[in-house]
Design brief:
98 residues; alpha+beta; two-stranded antiparallel ribbon; 2 strands
Length: 98
Amino acid sequence: MKPNGFATPEQLTDMMKNSMPQFKTVNSNGYEIRTKVLEMAQEQVWQDYTAKFGAWETSVKKEGDEIVTTVQMPEVPGVAAVLEAAERMYSFVTGNNK
């Protein structure tokens, strides 16, 4: 800093450079890209399941002389659901939307 307490233009430039986010490009091969898409799809499918599980439905109603309780819980996602979500994501990335 200068004796008067103000920073020099060079010091201001350095402070701004240090406070800005750094963007780095990474060249990934096709396998790495598909693996990342698969990971994102799995996370999304499980987030959807968790949200649905938190709001599962119970209903009680009278049918004739009986009281019937129905519990509807979401289906646990399997590999097919994850692969379907990954395919939708990958199709979006490649521009081949169905």
